[in-house]
Amino acid sequence: MQPFQLTSQIQNEDYILSINPSPSGAYLLAPCSSGAVKVLDPNTVSCTTTLTTSSPISEVAFGVGETVYVGGMDGNVGVFDLRTGVAAIGVLNGGSSILSLSRNASGTILAAGTELAEKAGPDGEDVARLLMWDVRAGAAPLAQFIDCHSDDITQVRFHPTQDTLLLSGSTDNLINLYNLTPNLSEDDSLYQVINYNSINKIGFFGPSYEYIFAQTHVETFALYTFEEANLVKDFGDVRRHDFNGFGSVEYLIDSVYDAAEGRLYLVGGKQNGTIGIMNVALDTMELVYSLNGGHKDIVRGVYWNRAGRTLVSGGEDGVVSLWRN
Predict the structure, then answer these.
(1) Region 253-282 average pLDDT
(2) Quick check: is 291 in a domain?
(3) Is residue 181 in some structural domain?
(4) pLDDT score, position 112
(5) Where are the WD repeats (predicted)?
(6) What's the CA dihedral at 293, 251, 63, 55 to 10 degrees?
(7) Cα separation of 146 and 130, whole Å?
(8) What is the mean pLDDT of the chain?
(9) Among 38, 147, 219, 223, which residue has the least CB neighbours within 10 Å?
(10) Is 31's pLDDT higher than 90?
(11) Sorting pLDDT into bands at 50, 70 and 90, what band is 44?
(12) What span, in angstroms and rounded, lies between the C-alpha atoms of 117 and 133?
């Protein structure tokens, strides 16, 4: 395989939280620790505009067209239109610090996971909320699930093609699987629960996106079937794997599914900023790329355009790096 070469870098004052591609691939969003969201040209990683917020932010998500949602630690989701400028055009009210966002395949429903809020439940109990908005219908949530998790909801992910299928993951060690009912009943929508570990990232993969992956805060990694929630493979602590010539990764960054080739890749890093990309099979994983010299600190996000043979990475050193192979 052709190795990656570092072709350009942009230095930012604030560290980069993640790298997020638009559905069309025309833009990349790089949310920053300051609360700003950099809009990047994917071919040069230069910043074309900056979205401004009044709160620290957690995650961003693209809606339909040029719409962007920005999850804030103030409990609100800012709504932006990249065609009209840098200021928010609307706000969705969440009530608790937003940790994760995902919109469904048709772009009509936005889901969010929140931090555990003290005494915020109907009976004064601590609650973490799974919120859902009909983005066509106003600022108030269409529904909220408050019994599904007992701690911070760190990840929510809709199925890439089926509007009603949803995952949520939490620091309570649970991954919840939902098939949302028309009335968005919490009891009726939740149909499977996986007890694994404190969840960092989750997502779908497979020819029909029938599998799910799970990354945890203790750097373990596992694969499950979505419909039955059956364990396919638990790779355990990935830091204990010795990858030929690379050594071991020290933390996990993200997982990338290449639908064209039907391959799942796990991306990890070292404290010095080195990036390793592993090809994941259903029973093993192997190192396929090592990216060196692009960062000097922890890498927080990557976007890999397999067809375009480019990769963009961003991290705690404030650097956005563009690689080509």
Answers:
(1) 96
(2) no
(3) yes
(4) 98
(5) 146-180, 292-325
(6) -90
(7) 7
(8) 94
(9) 147
(10) yes
(11) very high
(12) 19
Q: Cα separation of 62 and 29, whole Å?
A: 9
Q: Reduce the secondary structure of the chain to three states and give it as a string.
A: CCCCEEEEEEECCCCECCCEECCCCCCEEEEECCCCEEEECCCCCCEEEEECCCCCEEEEEECCCCEEEEEECCCEEEEEECCCCCCCCEEEECCCCEEEEEECCCCCEEEEEECCECCCCCCCCCECCEEEEECCCCCCCCEEECCCCCCCEEEEEECCCCCCEEEEEECCCEEEEEECCCCCCHHHHEEEEEECCCEEEEEEECCCCCEEEEEECCCEEEEEECCCCCEEEEEEEHHHCCECCCECCCEEEEEEEECCCCEEEEEEECCCCCEEEEEECCCCEEEEEEECCCCCCCEEEEEEECCCCEEEEEECCCEEEEEEC
Task: Specify the number of domains making up the chain.
Answer: 1
What's the whole-number mean pLDDT along residues 104-115? 96
For residue 117, tell me if it sits in a domain. yes
Checking if the pLDDT of 285 tops 80, the result is: yes
Assess if residue 257 is contained within a domain: no
pLDDT of residue 56 exceeding 80, the answer is: yes
Mean pLDDT of 294-317: 96
Q: What gap in Å lies between CA 318 and CA 308, rounded to an integer?
A: 24
| pLDDT of 58 over the 80 cut | yes
CA 283 to chain centre: 24
| CATH code of residue 72 | 2.130.10.10
Its domain, for residue 186, covers 16-252
